[in-house]
Amino acid sequence: GYCQCKLHVEGPTCSSCKQLYWNLDKENPNGCSECQCHKAGTVSGTGECRQGDGDCHCKSHVGGDSCDTCEDGYFALEKRNYFGCQGCQCDIGGASSSVCSGPSGVCQCREHVVGKACQQPENNYYFPDLHHMKYEIEDGSTPNGRDLRFGFDPLAFPEFSWRGYAQMTSVQNDVRITLNVGKSSGSLFRVILRYVNPGTEAVSGHITIYPSWGKASAAQSKEIIFLPSKEPAFVTVPGNGFADPFSITPGIWVACIKAEGVLLDYLVLLPKDYYEASVLQLPVTEPCAYAGPPQENCLLYQHLPVTRFPCTLACEARHFLLDGEPRPLAVRQLTPAHPVMVDLSGREVELHLRLRVPQVGHYVVVVEYSTKAAQLFVVDVNVKSPGSVLAGQVNIYSCNYRCGAMNSLVSPQRLCQVPGWIAQGKRLIFSNVKGCTPTFATHLENWG
Question: Which of 1, 115, 280, 324 has its Cβ near the most Cβ atoms within 10 Å?
Answer without folding.
Answer: 115
